[in-house]
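Work Package 3 (structural annotation) set out to generate three-dimensional models for the target panel prioritized at the project kickoff. During this period the team completed the workflow that converts sequence records into discrete structure tokens, so that structures can be stored uniformly alongside our sequence database. As a representative example, we reproduce one entry of 103 residues exactly as it appears in the project archive.
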Amino acid sequence: MLVTKSIYFEKKAMATVEVSCKYCKSIKVIKNGYSSIADRQVQRYRCQSCKKSFQLDYTNPAYKSDTADKIVAMTLNGSGVRDIRRVLGVGFKTIQNTLKKKE
């Protein structure tokens, strides 16, 4: 089943985006409820191939896909943990766990 997400621009034009799994890149994705974030709800999706659920956009910077790469790159460039926390907006444990996984 092909799931698409409709995006409205200025309430006139509409674009359709094909939703694919962020883990296995499969297009066998179904809607899987909503996640309440602050004052809005975000659509959740579930992959029928790998059985994992995900969102298209996250508000917490620790959940974004490129955060781990940025943490490692900043560490290799000599940035300290406090610098990384301030720049990326993630917690100390996130940095610590990411660096342990990359070893």
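DSSP finds three helices and five strands in the chain.
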